[in-house]
TrEMBL record:
The lineage of its organism: Bacteria, Bacillati, Bacillota, Bacilli, Lactobacillales. InterPro entries: Acyl_CoA_acyltransferase, GNAT_dom. Residues 2-168 form the N-acetyltransferase domain. It comes from Streptococcus loxodontisalivarius. Signal peptide: none annotated. This is Acetyltransferase.
Length: 177
């Protein structure tokens, strides 16, 4: 059973093993952010906690919750829930970014991770959730559509989908026509 939750100190070995797989496969790890050459697990955990509160985040970033998905103790993937949107995220990132480790892809994990991420967003009072994917990313598109995503538009190769809220209104919240 897949569980999406904040990472803990006791998860270090499982998460480091997953990170190594992403690096070895030279695979994007959307929803999980780290610098391999300067990584320290304890510092990463602390930075995640501070980022959730909006403390110490870099310019251009927003408060976010870092989640990791686990299946029977094995780290499966990352999911980042951005608690608000900025101009970049409105056009190219959305509220949720996620990735599944290469060896676990094709097993429905991304669909379940996103489902649980949507529930987390709703619990944080984000009733209308923006998700994006690149036009050529058929797998991500399928995951978004399976979770009820409604395409709003495509901007510079980025498909923008909304889940929840009123899909009849097709303008971006906070943006004037």
């Amino acid at each position: 059973m897949l569980v999406l939750r904040r990472p803990e100190a006791t998860d270090e070995a499982a998460i480091l093993e997953m990170m190594a797989e992403f690096i070895e496969a030279d695979s994007a790890h959307d929803g999980g952010f780290w610098q391999p050459d300067q990584f320290h697990y304890g510092d990463w955990l602390e930075a995640n906690q501070l980022a959730e509160m909006g403390i110490g985040i870099s310019d251009g970033w927003v408060p976010a919750i870092q989640f990791v998905a686990f299946d029977n103790g094995r780290a499966i993937g990352f999911l980042s829930l951005r608690l608000r949107l900025n101009d970049h995220l409105i056009n190219h990132g959305g509220h949720i970014g996620y990735s599944v480790r290469p060896s676990a892809r094709g097993n429905g994990f991304a669909k379940e991770m996103l489902k649980q991420g949507i529930s987390a967003a709703i619990s944080k009072n984000i009733p209308k959730i923006l998700l994006t994917c690149h036009e050529e990313n058929a797998a991500s598109r399928a995951v978004i559509l399976a979770n009820g995503g409604v395409l709003e538009d495509i901007r510079e190769g980025t498909e923008r989908y909304w889940i929840g809220g009123n899909h009849e209104q097709s303008k971006t919240p906070g943006m004037e026509e």
